[in-house]
Amino acid sequence: LSRLESVSGRILNEIASQTRNKAVRHLATEILRFEMENWKKERVHFTEHFEQLISQACPEDQRRDDSS
Amino acid sequence: LRIQSIELENFRQYRGKVLVELGCDQKKNINVIQGVNGAGKTNMLNAIEWCLYDKEGYLEKYSGKKQPIINDAELKELKEGEKATAKVTLRLIDSGGRQTVFERQISARRDKDGITFDGESEAHAYMRIKQDMVELTEREFTVNRILPYGVRSFFFFDGERLDEFFKEEKSSVVRDAILDVSQLSLLEKAIEHLERTISSMRGKIKGDSPKIEDIQEAIREVEGGRENYRQQKRNKEEELSGIRAQLSEIGEKLMGSNEPLVRELQRRRETLSARLKELDETLQDNETETSDRVVERGPAIYATDAIRFALQQIDVRAKKGDIPPKIRETFIRELLDKGECICGTKIRHDSVPRKRIMGLLERAKISEIYEEMVELKYALDPMLKAAGSFTKEQDRLRAEIAGLQRQKSEAQTEQREIETRLKGINVEEITNLEFTRKALEKNEDELIGRIGILGEKIENATRKLQELERELAKELSRSERFKIANQRLELGGDTLTVLARAKEKLVDETRATIEKKTEDYFLNLIWKKDTYADIKIDDDYNISVINRIGSECLGTLSAGERQVLALSFLAALREVSGFDAPVVIDTPLGRISKEPRENIAELLPNFLEHTQVTLFMTDEEYTSQVRTKLAQRIGREYELIYDEERSQTQVKTLG
Q1: Which residues 6+ apart lie within 8 Å of B618 measured at CB?
Q2: Closest C-alpha among A53, A61, A49, A23 to residue B484
Q3: Given a cut of 80, is residue B585 above it in pLDDT?
Q4: Interface of B with A in 245-274 (CB under 8 A)
Q5: Which of A35, B420, B462, B546 could, after both became Cys, cross-link B534 (CB 3.0–4.6 A)?
Q6: Residue B61 has pLDDT above 50, yes or no
Q7: Stretch B139-166: mean pLDDT, rounded?
Q8: What is B353-411 written as a DSSP string?
Q9: Is there a contact between A18 and B502 if contact means CB atoms under 8 Å apart?
Q10: Mutate which of A1, A8, A27 to disrupt the B interface (most B C-beta within 10 Å)?
Q11: Angle at the Cα of B582 (from B22 to B175), degrees rounded to 5?
Q12: B505, A32: Cβ pair inside 8 Å?
């Protein structure tokens, strides 16, 4: 593991200890992954991507997708 | 990870190709590159940074102006149609023997109109795989795995600037350092971005109810106001930092004055300032304790009579033999329901035995609350005792507070006297400095007050926002149409809370770890073993040193001791960061006088035991005594010689 991965592992472990909600954990992980990939960039377009991540993680959206 | 070699080609004063091979032996982990000021030491450090990050952090150390990267003489001799290139090649090797090579170059061409420089430099990275050098497509990613830019200043640094960590106006530097090494800036960014996404999502909801629109409007207004306060607070903090830097500069000027009395008074004032800061902190702690006690014990004091009455009732019952109960109420009820005693006697309605058993029932009622009564007794006893001792303890605390206030007032009076004496010294510069200092201190106080008020306003706005968010969620949940939008907002909000909590906890943990490791290094390495006891990094990221009698003494540390503290802090940061990168220090002993210089030289290899360390030292730093202290650990040794006639630096191998 690189240092970056192991440090993020520490953050992810802390998030896991803060909540049992799977959707929250999943969303937090995906947001961190995005930040890791873009952390050196000065301008990052995140709003649309984050909205999409929230929609993907939202249980109600998933239920609606499953039933359609 | 170690630097095998640095190769410079036409980089600033290095004309042609210059190769510096460094020692990679674990036991001889120190490399020394010495040279007089201007010989090219700092530019070699710049070359490393430029090669890796396309930035030169130490560029303006002496000259204050930017010069072209390509060697000046090379550019001057360039003929029309010709091209000159500056190139830096850095060869690194890891513990498994894998070699990674980083290159960066930039060119300039002369045409009939003059010299044109490339807009951007060209960079490559290669990794040796068996006999072949394979180019790595993701160069930036590779650099980040080795040492990200944000963390590099704890590995490549200027010894003369280490002191900056300990100035109050630089506490944000310490905070950023801690966030950077622990990579918690990632979390900070994630929180900021998620907050803005949620706000945008909330704004997009188009409701058909005027109430929803009203709440949205109110949220926008409060958010706008909060952002405005945050911006104002940032500006004020920046202003405060500037004022503190000016105050610190005036302090340094007074300390460096030719007048011995000025130096003495300024030294005393700094000691008093440290003492006042300490007194303020203790006073605040005591005042908090006093008010906490009132809040904590207030209910017991008001209810003293009731508590006493309850305890008396319990005692009376105990004396009467009702408690502990000999018989349980439920058992007697069962007998009455059954109409027969355990001895077989019939206990019919209105019979004598029944009346006797009914009498027992009255006494047994207590059995149902017996356990609660025992618990109550154990809870009430200490409450009564605490209420009783309250006045005594409050008196003690008040006496302590009064004593501290007296000491504070004495220190303040002495400070005012120093100020009057300094203003009275018949040296214009000193008088002016004193007047400026006084004005700056007034501004500092005002700014601290304003920052505090803005902080309150931000907190109030945040609370108001939370209320409005809850109100909006409630309104949205009334309509099926907004069910999904509401759930998304809820999920975003919950994730935001979790990220914020995780950040808070990890920042605290990391700060505590760095505090502990800095203390371990410092107490282990400082030569005055019996003087210092503790290192603290407070909530505002100010570093303090506590001596054996419990006083803060950072202000009275000598230059050498401050250097040990700074190196300890950097060693702790490096350890926490976990990056296994080499360390390069420019002028590590520059500010230090003879004796501590030798002490630090002796200690340096211990700070960085398993790390390759390259030291760029002037001839004044690299004395024969320092050289002797380091001798056992030196891998390679070079001297940089600047040839003024040819305006170029040559590298001579020593040892």
Answers
A1: B34, B35, B36, B37, B41, B587, B590
A2: A61
A3: yes
A4: none
A5: B546
A6: no
A7: 74
A8: HHHHHHHHHHHHGGGGGHHHHHHHHHHHHHHHHHHHHHHHHHHHHHHHHHHHHHHHHHH
A9: yes
A10: A27
A11: 150
A12: no
Which residue's entry shows tokens 């192991």?
A6
Contact check, Cβ <8 Å, A31/B190: yes
Give the chain A residue whose CA is nearest to the CA of B574.
Answer: A3
Of B144, B483, B506, the CB nearest to A11: B506
The two tokens of residue B488 are 């998304």
- Report pLDDT for B92: 92
CA distance B581 to B612: 8
| Chain A positions with Cβ closer than 8 Å to B | 2-4, 6-8, 10-11, 14-15, 18-19, 21, 23-24, 27-28, 31-32, 34-36, 39-40, 44, 46-47, 50-51, 54-55, 57-61, 64
Please tell me the predicted confidence (pLDDT) of residue B8. Answer: 94
CB contact under 8 A, A58 and B190: no
Which residues in chain B have their CB less than 8 angstroms from residue A59's CB?
487
- State yes or no: pLDDT of B128 exceeds 70: yes
Interchain pair A11, B186: CB under 8 A: yes
Q: What are phi and psi of B562, to 5 degrees?
A: -65, -35
Give residue B86's pLDDT band: very low, low, confident or very high (50, 70, 90). very high
**Quick count: other Cβ atoms within 10 Å of Cβ B252?**
10
Reading the block at residue B624, the tokens are 């024969």
pLDDT at residue B131 greater than cutoff 90: no
Residue type, B34: Q
Q: Say how many CB pairs under 8 Å bridge A and B.
A: 104
Q: What is each CA distance from A57 to A22, A23, B406, in whole angstroms?
A: 9, 5, 61
How far apart are alpha carbons B45 and B55 in whole angstroms?
Answer: 11
DSSP B78: P
* Residue B48 Cα, gap to closest chain A Cα (Å): 19
B298 touches chain A (CB under 8 A): no
- What is the C-alpha to C-alpha distance for residues B401 and B416, in angstroms, rounded to an integer? 22
Pairing verdict, β B122-129 and B156-158 = unpaired
Contacts of B495 in chain A (CB under 8 A): 24, 27-28, 31, 54
Query: What ipTM does the predicted assembly reach?
Result: 0.88
The beta-carbon neighbor of A46 closest among B183, B193, B501 is B193
CA distance B194 to chain A (A): 7
Among residues B138, B47, B127, the alpha carbon closest in space to that of B56 is found at: B47
Query: B227 CB contacts (<8 Å, ≥6 apart)?
Result: none
Span B5-17, average pLDDT = 91
Q: What is the pLDDT of residue A67?
A: 52
Cα four-point dihedral sign B71, B74, B76, B79:
negative
pTM: 0.62
CA distances (Å), origin B7, targets B68, B153, B222, B639: 18, 21, 57, 15
pLDDT score for B486:
85
| HSE-CB of B82 using CA atoms within 13 angstroms | 9
Report the gap between the CA of A7 and the closest CA in chain B (Å). Answer: 7
The C-alpha atoms of residue B275 and residue B538 are separated, in whole angstroms, by 16
Helical H segments across B256-328, by residue range: 260-302, 304-320
* DSSP state, residue B62: S
Give the pLDDT band of residue A41 (cuts 50, 70, 90): low
